[in-house]
Amino acid sequence: MSLNFKFKEDFILFLIQTGALKFGEFTLKSGRQSPYFMNAGSFRYGSHVEMLGTFYADCIKNTIKDDFDILFGPAYKGIPLAISTACALHKKYDIDKEYCFNRKEIKDHGEGGIFVGASISDGDKIIIIEDVVSSGTSTREVVPLIKNQANVILNDMYILVDRMEVGYNGKTASQEIKEEFGITVRPIVNVREIIDFLYNRYIDGKVILGDEQRDKMERYLEMYCVK
Fold first, then answer.
1. Residue 47's closest CA among 9, 80, 86?
2. What pLDDT does residue 117 have?
3. b/e for 134-150, b at 16 or more Cβ within 10 A?
4. Cα angle value 89/95/100 (rounded, 5°)
5. Burial of 196 by CB count in 10 Å (0-12 exposed, 13-18 middle, 19+ buried)?
6. pLDDT at res. 201
7. What does the alpha-carbon distance between residue 107 and residue 193 come to, in Å, rounded to a whole number?
8. Pseudo-torsion of CA 71, 76, 81, 86, nearest 10°?
9. What are the boundaries of each domain within the chain?
10. What pLDDT is stored for residue 43 in this prediction?
11. Which residue in 29, 104, 109, 206 is the catalytic one?
12. CA distance 8 to 213
């Protein structure tokens, strides 16, 4: 099945080729037994980070376009992602925006402060660049930091993959973030798109997601994911 944007298809292929997306039997932090696993730690090369920035840029361009002022990368994983996205937006779409990230500890010398990069001011439209959203802990830490700095507009967050899983409260992390902060979480792809694109598709001469594995994925979605 073809997806509505080619960059989504290219991104799924990129996940397979880098080994970031694996199928099998995996125990998650939640204790659930998952038939697939996403490991962002597989992105180890400069070429990987460059490509990630391009996929984020594609997703941004096809959603909010250039209607923002600053890309924010939460420490630590969000820092290289925000920078590579800023570079890709400029190189591919001629959208030149500032970026900013936070320190884990407040610097008490030099320029000082907890933020590096763009100066955050009242009225700035900020988007957050993250790898994944699981429990939402990182978001709950960084959003107050940003909003304590200035009266900003913070409506959008971009992530790699949405597993679409509900927690014990019956809501996904994305739904919780939307309700708590008014932020829309925008994944490059979600697990449903991954299944639809990969099912019975030959990649490098073999089928990555055949009937048996697809059935496991569907059962998992039925048990734990939003309908």
1. 80
2. 95
3. eebebbeebbeebeebe
4. 70
5. middle
6. 95
7. 42
8. 40
9. 6-224
10. 94
11. 109
12. 21
Task: Say what the pLDDT of residue 52 is.
Answer: 98
Task: Clarify whether 90 is annotated catalytic.
Answer: no
The catalytic residue among 6, 65, 90, 107 is 107
Owner of token pair 């708590």: 180
| One-letter amino acid of 61 | K
| Mean pLDDT, contiguous 10-residue spans, the chain (227 residues) | 90 96 91 92 94 98 97 94 98 98 70 84 97 80 93 97 89 92 96 97 94 96 89
pLDDT of amino acid 30: 82
* C-beta atoms surrounding 218 within 10 Å: 15
pTM (2 d.p.): 0.94
Task: Return the residue matching tokens 């597993």.
Answer: 163
pLDDT of 108 reads 57
Structural contact between residues 53 and 88, judged by C-beta atoms closer than 8 angstroms: yes
- Would you call 107 a catalytic residue per the annotation? yes
CATH 3.40.50.2020 fits 6-224, yes or no: yes
